[in-house]
Amino acid sequence: MTHGTQTDTHTRYPGERGDWRDAATRYALLPLRIFLGVTFIYAGLDKLTDSVFMKASGSGSIGDMMRTVRDSSAVPALVDLALKSPVGFGYAIAFGELAVGIGTLIGLLARLAALGGAFISLSLWLTVSWASDPYYYGNDLPYLFCWTPLVLAGASYWSLDAVIRQRRQQRTGH
Description:
Layout lengths: L19 H7 L3 H20 L12 H8 L6 H8 L2 H21 L3 H18 L12 H14 L6 H13 L2
Helix pairs in contact: 2-5, 3-4, 5-6, 6-7
């Protein structure tokens, strides 16, 4: 029986600088955080500034889009819920995307923001992009999986969460 051997074990001491691999590991999720944060802010602002989208009916409206995908969605009940107030649903999605994007970008309540992003992506995948064939043509499923590492890891660097955590540790001496 063979066992794996880790060859580059080295205990880091406080203040000691690592090599480029250590830095790459520390900051690996930062590009994903920036991309998702900017994308969700843009998506929210795009919806809020699109006068056609924020209507209950008409070509290009949230209501028309929901009626179009209703019968092909995985969970038609979600679409029916949105159709009770399409404009309200449109605003909820837009403001949700803004909150998720801002929280992710600045790293404030980053895990909660990522969970919100995953929830929005899951909801959109089960409704709007469910009928994409083949499935990988729909973008909501990959977004869902992009949120997963941020739900698990949060934003440990270049984030307000890290600043808050550091100040808390300084106060308690830990």
